[in-house]
Design brief:
628 residues, 4 domains, 1% strand, extended
Length: 628
């Protein structure tokens, strides 16, 4: 089925779509709405740098484990695999929230970040795999709905967390929040891929390998598929009795309306049989090969002489074997025991002497003597040395398996991190892509989390309820940009870099406004601008980077892009931890982040101008030269 037919004929699968949107509402809100928890940690005299490091740890663990979870989703998927792994991820997330209710405040950021990041990474990998396999023809619209769910969660969960803390207290609110996250279990149980629908090769996540495999396995060879590769021959439908009865070119004949009964068109080649007359593709009979006569063949001897020679050779060989057998019998009969031969006086027939063992010179070892030997110090030392040497040079099977698993783990780290990293660092397009992804992560873990604390530093001080309303306004402006999702779904990928640049510049302006805000109005304007820019950047950065680095390099650069950006975010948070505890320290952090985003915006502005010149201006100038 072609693309248009798939787009109009594929179902939306509403239960699966609702479950995916619900998971995007709940799980990312653990980071988006963490600013409310940060305000209460500040009231409990927990340092701000420790509280603001929690989203950074969360994102760092998420990015470091996402590549492994993605591979696990590809290998363990299926009717049950996606749901089992998602349930494991949800269990880890709920366990992290329950543990935060009983541990000290200074340990909560690490438990919340490490376990929550790993569980969310495990769930998001399954959701991404199912969305790609199910909604391949509407992938842009579905991703827009997922981002809309994240915006709804960012606008809703600050109010929910505030109500839980006011009702149950800070510590017990984690238990109720874990119960809310546990309500996503029915949505996880709906994560299932319809295996009855066969996806076309062009929609595979590994399309290059899939197309090559399909060519050699005779898949995808329908009437609309044109290729220069040689098709395989289907010998199952061949008429072996008479090769001239069937068509040597097509598996099925045309009917009167020129319609196929099947989709696959396979070529048939008659088998080479010496009993039949073979024909080439033009119908000409191929004569059997006739050996040419030479002068040497005339002088050959008749077959009777050859048979007599062979008989003589066979008789000579039999005689030799009989002689050899007699010599073997003589050798065996002459063998005697060395220790039974009497010694001759003055004549040494051997280079060594033997001692005849009899019962007269060997006394039996009793149990008492054996016990004395085993309990002696020398025997214990020798046995300990032997056992230690055996353990060092001949380890047990358990040690062997541990060593093999360690080697496998080291090779896995090499293939997952080191090789892609060395490959990525040699590509200049990797660095602008890394800057764009880092800007998105920094806006998530620093700007969005700091809104509640910055609101408490305004003059007059903004209450927690008003701050939650402004965070809702942040999510609402995010949704306002997501109204353009149908237009973005029809936009060519080469234009996404301009939309991402627009979002980056708007986010930079929002950071400047938040850094200079000192009252309720200016802070509200900064939230609106930052929300609109974050919506544009979060929706378009991945497609922009895919088009920028190319479809072939994107799978190779994806994992290093995630891991290095998460590491850079952790380094940035460690750097700003020295100034956030000062007066107006978070606004100074916003100013530093705005400067960094300005540099990144300038680099991507140069890239956009270069692409416009190469694709728009340069061809026009060349055409004018050819005209004149």
């Amino acid at each position: 089925m072609d693309f248009d037919g798939r787009a109009h004929g594929a179902t939306w699968r509403w239960p699966l779509l609702l479950s995916v949107v619900l998971l995007n509402i709940c799980l990312p809100s653990l980071v988006y709405a963490y600013g409310v928890i940060l305000v209460h940690l500040d009231e409990l005299h927990v340092p701000i740098w420790l509280g603001i490091s929690t989203p950074a740890i969360y994102i760092l663990v998420y990015n470091l484990t996402q590549c492994w979870c993605r591979e696990a989703a590809d290998s363990w998927g299926g009717a049950i695999g996606y749901r089992v792994m998602s349930v494991i991820g949800l269990t880890v997330v709920v366990a992290s929230l329950l543990a935060c209710a009983f541990i000290p405040y200074h340990i909560q950021p690490f438990v919340y970040g490490i376990l929550g990041g790993f569980g969310s990474s495990l769930i998001s990998a399954q959701v991404d795999a199912i969305v790609f396999d199910t909604y391949d023809s509407r992938l842009g619209i579905i991703r827009g709905l997922c981002f809309a769910g994240q915006a709804v969660g960012q606008a809703t969960f600050p109010h929910i967390i505030t109500a839980l803390i006011d009702t149950y207290g800070y510590s017990f609110s984690y238990i109720v929040l874990g119960g809310i996250m546990l309500q996503t279990l029915p949505a996880i149980l709906l994560l299932r891929v319809d295996e009855s629908i066969q996806r076309p090769i062009s929609f595979s996540r590994y399309s290059d390998l899939a197309k090559t495999y399909a060519v050699f396995s005779n898949e995808g060879m329908d009437k609309n598929f044109y290729t220069t590769e040689l098709q395989l021959h289907d010998m199952g439908q061949k008429s072996w009795k008479s090769p001239s009865d069937d068509n040597p070119h097509m598996e099925q004949d045309f009917n009167e309306d020129f319609e196929y009964e099947g989709d696959v068109v396979a070529t048939i080649t008659p088998p080479p049989s010496p009993e039949e007359k073979r024909r080439n593709i033009f119908g000409v009979e191929i004569l059997p090969e006739i050996p040419e006569e030479s002068e040497d063949s005339e002088g050959e001897e008749p077959p009777e002489i050859n048979t007599s020679k062979n008989k003589k050779r066979l008789s000579v060989a039999i005689k030799r074997l009989s002689t050899l057998g007699d010599s073997f019998d003589d050798c065996i009969s002459k063998q005697v025991r060395r220790d039974s031969q009497p010694e001759r006086d003055g004549v040494e027939q051997k280079e060594y002497s033997e001692v005849e063992v009899t019962y007269d010179n060997v006394s039996p070892v009793t149990d008492i003597q054996r016990e004395k030997i085993f309990n002696s110090f020398s025997f214990r030392c020798q046995s300990a040395y032997a056992s230690m040497r055996r353990r060092m040079w001949m380890p047990s099977y358990r040690v062997y398996t541990i060593r093999r698993r360690l080697i496998f783990f080291m090779y896995n780290i090499n293939d997952t991190f080191i090789k892609p990293l060395t490959r990525s660092l040699s590509c200049w397009k990797f660095y602008p892509s890394l800057m764009l992804y880092f800007s998105r992560l920094s806006l998530t873990s620093v700007t969005m989390v700091s809104l509640s604390i910055i609101a408490s530093e305004m003059h007059p001080k903004i209450s927690i309820s008003d701050a939650n309303f402004l965070m809702t306004l942040y999510g609402f402006t995010w949704i306002c940009f997501l109204m353009c999702t149908p237009w973005l779904a029809q936009t060519p990928k080469r234009n996404f870099k301009y939309v991402a640049l627009f979002g980056l510049m708007v986010s930079t302006a929002g950071c400047y406004v938040l850094a200079e805000a000192d009252n309720h109005d200016s802070f509200s304007i900064g939230c609106v601008i930052a929300g609109f820019g974050y919506g544009a950047l979060s929706c378009c950065w991945e497609t922009a980077v895919q088009d920028f680095v190319g479809a072939r390099k994107w799978p190779k650069l994806h994992s290093p892009l995630e891991t290095i950006s998460g590491t850079l975010l952790a380094v940035f948070v460690v750097g700003i931890s020295f100034i956030v505890d000062q007066e107006r320290g978070l606004q100074l952090t916003m100013f530093i982040l705005a400067i960094i985003l300005s540099v990144i915006s300038f680099i991507w502005l140069i890239i956009a101008i270069a692409y416009i010149y190469i694709t728009k201006v340069k061809p026009v100038r060349l055409n004018k030269r050819w005209i004149f």
